[in-house]
Amino acid sequence: MTEPHTNTGVNASNPKETGGPAWKKWAVFIATGLFCATVLLFVFFQEPEQTAPDEKKGVDVGLPVSVRTVAPGGYPATITALGEVTPLWQSTLRSQVNGRIVTLSARLQPGNTVRAGELLVKLEDSAYRQQLRETKSRVAQAHVTLKAEEREAVAARQNWKRSGLEGEPDSDLVLRQPQVAAARAELAAAEAAVAAAEEQLAQTEIRAPYDGLIVSREVNPGASLFAGDPVVHLAGLDVFEVAVQLDAKQWAMLPDDWRETPVSLVDPEVGTRHAAFAVRESRRLAGETRLRTLFVHIEEPFAQAQPLLPGSFVRAELTGKTLEHVLRVPESAYTKQGLCWYVDEGNRLRAWQAEARFFGDGTVFVTPPEDAVNDLRLAVSPHAGFTRGLAVQPLEGE
């Protein structure tokens, strides 16, 4: 019998059967690689076209910034300062004589106004009337004495002539000249005593020295007063004064002839304006503030439609010299750090340290940047996000 033949190397001897699976793997790998390469090439060549619009957009669009075109020019300086309204005249009336109050004016109350010469307080005056009568009696007696002495002097002169003696007597007592001089001096003293008594009698009536406002009352009906006791504190109503303090820069902006310069006093609480004028200066620097004081007067403050009350704090505004080459910018454009921002020709932010020369109604007048030769596109409302060189989109007039 023929033994079965066992072929143990069939797989190894068939090259087609042994390489089949490996060839398929390589084919899949190569196909996948070609596909990925194709996709990458497609994406690479398509990306510039897709991003080009965005890049172009990035050039044209930046941070929107509202701007206003400003240019240096000449502007009259507005000088502003704060001050308190005070009466030009204030007096504490005091009793000049002793006495009991017998009459007290019904208007002698704080807040009331009185006219010049109006009776405020009347003191009991019987003792002063008696004193006046006595001094007048003394004057009458002095007149009699003087006439008698003058008559005696005339008689003495006649007797001397009748005596036949030549020249003048050894003593002027012979002709009674000293006696006449003494009588005349006594008369003058008596008349002066009358004047003093009349003055003391007049002082029993305490009257207002000028039109004024009763600020405080220090007496009551029936009270006794001694010379020097306070009676009433009176404030004048004709002229009020405001003392405003200016620094050296503000003072330099005043007109050369600043006296009688019109001044507008603004009451910030009610918004009223009152016409006033500058009258004088302190000619010294205040010790604490090192500022110089300008005094402003307002006449007839209670005669205006809206009275200006004493004690009010007001803002004084006056027009000074014209300053050249300054920028007029809104207050919102001037930062707390003293910076102003503008947009350059390349639409990028720039800033400069601006010196505020003076302030107006919602505006600030500042020095322009040193390199400014043309109009500036000023950023109206800068904020914390501003940085130098930042690309922006200026929006004019917004």
UniProtKB/TrEMBL annotation:
Coiled coil start-end: 180-207
One cellular component term from this protein's GO annotations in UniProt: efflux pump complex
InterPro entries registered for this protein in UniProt: MdtA-like_BSH, RND_pump_MFP
Gene3D superfamilies linked to this entry: 2.40.30.170, 2.40.50.100, Helix hairpin bin
GO molecular function, one term: efflux transmembrane transporter activity
Regions that span the bilayer: 26-45
Assigned keywords, A-Z: Coiled coil, Membrane, Transmembrane, Transmembrane helix
Domain Multidrug resistance protein MdtA-like barrel-sandwich hybrid: 92-230
Classification via NCBIfam families: RND_mfp (TIGR01730)
Family: Belongs to the membrane fusion protein (MFP) (TC 8.A.1) family.
Name the record gives this protein: Efflux RND transporter periplasmic adaptor subunit
